[in-house]
Every structure is written in C-alpha cells, then in structure tokens.
Write a structure and sequence with these properties.
Length: about 500
Amino acid sequence: MIARLLTFPLILILAGVAAFLMFLPAIDAAMRGYSGVGRAFAFSGILGLALVMSVGLALSGRTNQKMNDTQNLISLLLAYLLLPVFLALPFYEGVRNTTFLNAYFEMVSSFTTTGASLFDAPGRLKDSLHLWRALVGWSGGLLIWISASAVLAPLSLGGFEVTARGEPGQDETVLGRFERAAPAKRLAQSTAVLAPVYIGLTAALWIILMIGGERAFVAAVHAMSTMATSGISSIGGLQNGAAGFAGEFAIFLFLFFSLSRLTFSSDTITAARPGVINDPEFRLGVMLVIGVPLILIVRHWLATLGIEETGDWRVALRALWGALFTVLSFLSTTGFESADWQEARDWSGLGTPGLILLGLSLIGGGVATTAGGVKLLRVYALYLHARRETERLVHPSSVGRATGLGRRIRRQGAYIAWVFFMLFAMSLTFVTALLTLFGQGFESALILTISGLSTTGPLILTASEAPIRLLELSAGAKMVYAMAMVLGRLETLALIALLNPSIWRD
C-alpha cells in the first residue's frame, strides 16, 4: 500500500496529508462549539480528499510512475507555492471577515515556518484557527526534516554542497548504495525514521509544558512551534504564558535541536569523530548563544565602571537568562522572546538591539534542520578559510592541514559557501528594492526582507522601535514578502538547480 502511494507525485501526497490534518481543527472546533469553523475545516478536508483521490485515479494508469530527484524538487517548490492555496481555504472560511490574499499569506508564513502573522491582535482568531496555524507550521517543519535527506541531499543542496564528498548528496563511491536507492524508497525510509522522532519530541515538550502549569492547548501550540521553529503562539508569546521560567527552560533545551541535525539524526556527519559535541555547527551555535549574552552583560559593567552601583544580583541573573533564551531563539529563527528579555535590554542599555537579532537570524541554525538563515555550517566553512588565509599571511610557505572538526568540509566548501552568501545578498537587495517600490521605507523593507529570507517572522515586531503591521502592507508588498519566505525556505541554490540541464537528464 505504502509502495503504491509513493509512486504518485510528492505534491499529491502532501495535499492528501494536508486534507487529513484538516479534521483535527474540525474536531477541536466542534468540541468548542465553533460550528462555522468546524464545518469549514470538515468540508475542506472531505473535498480535498475527494480531489486527491480523483487525481490519483487519473494518474494510476501511467506506465512510468517512478519519481526522480528532479520531480521531487519541483514538487517541493510547488508545495510551498500552491499548497498554501488549499490550506488557506478553511482558514478563509473560518475567519470570514478577511481577504483570501491574507489567508494565503498566513498559510505561506506558517508552512515555511516563518511565523509572521497578519492576525496578531488578541482575540482576533479563535483557538481552532490558531491550532491550524500551528499544525501547518509543524507539518512544514517535518517536511524540511524529511526532504533534507530524501530530496536535497541527493542533489547536493540545502547546505549539503559544503560537506565533503563522502557524505550524503556527494558522488563518492562509498555511497553508491545510497545513490542507487530509488527516490521513493529514500522518502519512505526518511519518513519512517524521522517522523516518530519529530512526533515524540513534540509530545514530550507538550507534556513538560503542561507539567509546568501551561494550559493543554497553549502547551500544544508552543510545543509544535518550538520543534518547527515557527514562533507561532496563540497568546501573543511565551511572556503571556503560565509556565513561567520552567516552560522557558524546557523550550530552551528543545531549541538546541535546531542547531545541528546530529542532535536527532546521524545522516550528516560533519566532523571526523562522531557525536554532537564534535559537530562544528553545534559548537559554533553554542559559542554564539553564550558569547552574545556575555557581551551584553559585560557592556553593562563597562558602562558603569567607576560608578558605585548597588544592583541586585537577581536582576543580573534574570537579564542573563533573558538574553540567553532570546539569542538562542532568534539564532534558531524561532523568534520567541523571554519574559526577561526586557530586563536584559535595560541591563545592557540597548533600547532595541535590532541589529543583534537581525544578525543572529541571518546566521540561522544547522543544515537540514527546521531553522532558516544561511546556516552555521556555511559560516564555519568561511571561518576555516579565513583562518587558513591568515596563516598564509604569517607563513606563506606553510602547508594546510585538515583538523578533526574540518575534515568533512569539502575542499571547495568555502568557495561554495561564499557563492551562496553572494546569492543571498543579491536576493536581499532585490527583495528590499521591490518592497520599497511598493511603498515601504528602507528600514522596514530591510527588516521585512531579512525576516522573510531567514524565515524569522517575529523580527517584524522586535527588530525596530515601532512594530511593523503586516495588515498595513499593500497587496503587492504582501506577495513579495510571501515569495521571500518561500525563497528563504527553499534557498536560492535549489531554485537555480532547477535551471541546470544536468539534473534533468535521465
């Protein structure tokens, strides 16, 4: 049965899964007495399943039904462009007093795990609609986990292009059996291995948050948003929750899964020695999480040097915790703020440290995780190259050597990482120019662009002194921002790969 299903296009399979997921908010709405919302989701799910089955029957007579890597990549692109149209139907009918463009934008934001919302006013959406946003974001995170190894790795995309040739997605003979496996088989194996881990971690965090005192519904939304790094919340953020420090600490620990794929899988070894402790991505991420808050704390002491101060150590610890949590949250492109983040800002003397948050979001998390950004592995590859060039300035005749942490970075890894950085910068410039063309100021256009390309929606509320209201954007600006979110999720290299004739050859 499963083998038969995997012969159909990936976009059709994803549409069927989306139709099944619609019954969850339908049941939730029926239990809460939201009959209109429940009917919208139930009818959309039934009609969606009927349409998927009709298309499946029409395709069942094909003689050649085997998928290839190029078709999967195209399906992945179509999923981010067209599937939100289907996802927006019940949302549009459930909200009632909004436009379909706003509903489509909301679903693109959720499915790409960006988390930017047009409906951020308290009480604007019913809980069942918040559940649908969280479910869409959560399923989008699972899709990234699976497609990273089943779709992007064989094509050397999504960060795999930086790793050594002995790793998934490269052309060493040692991985011949990996490359000979059919795309459908890789998809099935990746789903069977990763889906239980993803579901189990989400359930574990949900239970922990409920133990911490959070309502079951809010805990479920925050657990799904944490694992997907979408930053979606039904109550306006963690600072409004009931779990307090215990809930924040639990989410803080689970956010480390977005720093390195080795925290939940072993299919992307990026160090000579196994283990997440030896992973350069994880080490670099931990250095940033520890280093940036310490700089903010030290700034406070330097500013008050020579001034007698009778500060409370408890205030200092709260400021340190607020900085630690928020830095990790934005580095993982989640965007949750700690309840003590305001204390950290006051302690450091920075009114709105927008540049710090923008920089952390641009760096992003680990390769093949739900985090966005340019990825820690690419930053690490450029660091290795810069260190080697510095050594050559001091000792021009020196011979380079591969360290234990850098042996899995391919010889041209820094060059490819630099090409990606240039493509990212060009994308940033182009999207910013388009947004200014649609009436946005330079600062707001830049924040919107970085927010979309790094899939960090909460940046629009925290990176500037005055929050950017998405509802006030023109229709053209909304569409440009939506396309930026898709571009940030799939990355420019994946779109350019579709123009490469070599991957279209049978």
